[in-house]
Amino acid sequence: MSKIVVLGGGESGVGAALLAKHKGFNVFLSDQGQLKPEYQQSLLDAQIPFEQGMHSMDNILDAQEIIISPGIPEKSPIVQEIKQKNISLVSEIEFASRYTPAKIIAITGSNGKTTTTLLTYHILKEAGLQVGLAGNIGHSFAKQVMENQHDYYVLEISSFQLDRCFHFTPDVAVLLNITPDHLDRYEYQFENYIQSKFRIFQNAKPQTTCIFWSDDPVWQSHANSIPHQAQVKTISFDNEQADMLIRPNEIKGSSHFQLDLNEAPLKGPHNAINMSAAILAAEAVGISAESIHQALHTFENAPHRLEPCGSWKGIQFINDSKATNVDAVFYALNSFKQPIILLIGGVDKGNEYEVLDDLVKEKVKGIICLGTDNQKLVKHFGPICSSLFSTDNLQAAVEKSLEWGQAGDIVLLSPACASFDLFKNYEDRGNQFKAMVKTLTDGK
């Protein structure tokens, strides 16, 4: 019996272990941290041996294949040892995709992939299809494959997951955009990150639909990375020949699909791209224009992505905690016409902030830097924003926004950075922001 080791005991790792056991493998799971009680119980119920708080290398290195958590970096010592032994090292996505006949829509991009994934899933589900939501969102893809209840999957795929995909072949592959992100995982080389994202197309067949935003300069310089035999669908603001053409007030499809952007559930030019991608993906699996229109009008976006979270004396508070890179902040700033007080900061991932300069000068009346080390932000934005405040305290940040704000202003938490200097993750950051806004504005 072949042995499979799973590294990482989170949602995807435990799901992969359960599927591997279900398929008859000898399975062992190892996590250097502590497993949640519910995950421990799932493994115990399935009689899968596991360890936590350590990696016992002898037990790991005698595996025929290792399924690795996307959170474990390529340069970590354990990955280097595995590679020296030439043991197959794959992601949960690669492993689980071997065992399902379901059609797969896979979505990646530096920004917008969660929104696009949720919208695509919503459209398919509203159309009556048996569809699963997985990848970077929802429940474990592998566990859902084991339960075999779905005919379709919509997967949000990160570059880390794609790095360990070799034969994964989605039926519909979507690449929304590529801007510098996670460069600390890619030797600070943007090209390495680009190549990782383009892996979503690497196994495209003649029947594969490849969807992308063709105005993206990165795509334009790497277009030959998409296999020529695939069915290509493009989104553009400029190219009249695109399959989805975005105009100031509408999205117009070559399939005669039209959407009035004034009535769309998502606002801003970046969301026009996201909606276009979801529409094309839904069309690719046979969903009618009528069904797509109906589903669009019942869609609600995910928390922490341009999420309204209260108002006080005409000041609106927006939680965009999921904006963990500079490009996401660029899109967020472009989504509002009102004056903005911007809360930014956290753990810098090699960010270059120059792309925000013109928008900051045009739209931002004040910047509040929220993090344990704000020096880079203060140095960059100090000369171009007259009102700047630096703090490592969320309450102080929100209080300062109340002090600066006037009726008609937007207070926007859009950090451009990771969250784990002051918070557990971006969800925790967003939830604490919403709670603090409520605390400080209630009764005032």
Automatic annotation (TrEMBL):
Main subcellular location? cytoplasm
* EC number(s) recorded for this UniProt protein: 6.3.2.9
List the Gene Ontology MF annotations in alphabetical order.
UDP-N-acetylmuramoylalanine-D-glutamate ligase activity
What is the enzyme's main class?
A: ligase
Q: Where does ATP bind?
A: G109, S110, N111, G112, K113, T114, T115
Provide the reaction this enzyme catalyses.
Answer: UDP-N-acetyl-alpha-D-muramoyl-L-alanine + D-glutamate + ATP = UDP-N-acetyl-alpha-D-muramoyl-L-alanyl-D-glutamate + ADP + phosphate + H(+)
Record's keyword terms, sorted: ATP-binding, Cell cycle, Cell division, Cell shape, Cell wall biogenesis/degradation, Cytoplasm, Ligase, Nucleotide-binding, Peptidoglycan synthesis
Q: Does the keyword Flavoprotein apply?
A: no
Pfam families given for it? Mur_ligase_C (PF02875), Mur_ligase_M (PF08245), MurD-like_N (PF21799)
The protein's location, in the record's own words, is: Cytoplasm
Annotated membrane-spanning segments are none
In this chain the Mur ligase central domain maps to 107-282
* Stretches assigned to the Mur ligase C-terminal domain: 304-417
Write down the superkingdom of origin.
Bacteria
Task: Identify the pathway.
Answer: Cell wall biogenesis; peptidoglycan biosynthesis
Q: Which HAMAP family match?
A: MurD (MF_00639)
- NCBIfam families in the record, alphabetically? murD (TIGR01087)
| Family affiliation | Belongs to the MurCDEF family.
Q: What role does it play? A: Cell wall formation. Catalyzes the addition of glutamate to the nucleotide precursor UDP-N-acetylmuramoyl-L-alanine (UMA).
Protein name, entry field? UDP-N-acetylmuramoylalanine--D-glutamate ligase
Per the UniProt record, the lineage of the source organism begins with: Bacteria, Pseudomonadati, Bacteroidota, Cytophagia, Cytophagales
